[in-house]
DNA sequence: GAGTGATCATAA
DNA sequence: TTATGATCACTC
């Protein structure tokens, strides 16, 4: 039986990180969890972020909820993405919280969204619902940096959405806005509230929101990588 | 069935 | 409460 070593240490180089990631390809989540003596949930009704956290541990990401890339020294963000039999994404991809206050002067170039996804290590996983979590298989991880075209696609949506926020129209933003980047609620439940800019520039309370990459966006980079 | 809005676990 | 990791599940 092949031995896999998964140090809980931050990788020192991109090459080392990629080398670790490549050894994961072909493993099921169950196999990977067993190696690390971690229990696999029967479903993700409760532990929705389990897969991402498993991969973080296996690749040596710095744990925690810090607002920076998973591999800060390498400038690389880790994202697992569930795919179907055609390598098409099954879910949108959360990027970061949407700023709802003090948004004047924020530019795309220095935005949270752009910063977060400058370099992403995508770990596609067969996430078909009919496959139990422990049998879901990890596909080939790959490193991605937005092309100038992709950067532009996201910038257009981001600017439209941020303008609405700055003008006090957060309550009018729905997930239907944005062709590639959307804004949706992001909270423990509907009771969570945060400050935002209201219609007349006053402070209001609203549900916290997050930026998400639509499947139309992530499917492009998956197709590019897999040569589809 | 797809997609939007809602929700779950955890850390600090 | 904000932020990390996301998927669930109801409505259209």
Automatic annotation (TrEMBL):
Species of origin reads: Paraglaciecola aquimarina
- Keywords assigned by UniProt, alphabetized: Cytoplasm, DNA damage, DNA repair, Endonuclease, Hydrolase, Nuclease
Q: Which NCBIfam families does the entry mention? A: mutH_TIGR (TIGR02248), PRK05070.1 (NF003458)
GO MF term set: endonuclease activity
* Membrane-spanning intervals of the chain: none
This protein's record includes keyword Nuclease: yes
Does the keyword section mention DNA damage? yes
Q: What domain of life does the UniProt record list for this protein's source?
A: Bacteria
UniProt domain DNA mismatch repair MutH/Type II restriction enzyme Sau3AI: residue ranges? 59-157
Functional description taken from the UniProt entry: Sequence-specific endonuclease that cleaves unmethylated GATC sequences. It is involved in DNA mismatch repair.
Know the name of this protein?
DNA mismatch repair protein MutH
> Which compartments is it annotated to reside in?
Cytoplasm
Checking Gene3D superfamilies in the record gives: DNA mismatch repair MutH/Restriction endonuclease, type II
What gene name is given for the protein in this entry?
mutH
Name the Pfam families on file: MutH
The entry assigns this protein to a family as follows: Belongs to the MutH family.
InterPro entries assigned to the protein according to its UniProt record, in alphabetical order: DNA_mismatch_repair_MutH, DNA_rep_MutH/RE_typeII_Sau3AI, DNA_rep_MutH/T2_RE_sf, Restrct_endonuc-II-like
Chief place of localization: cytoplasm
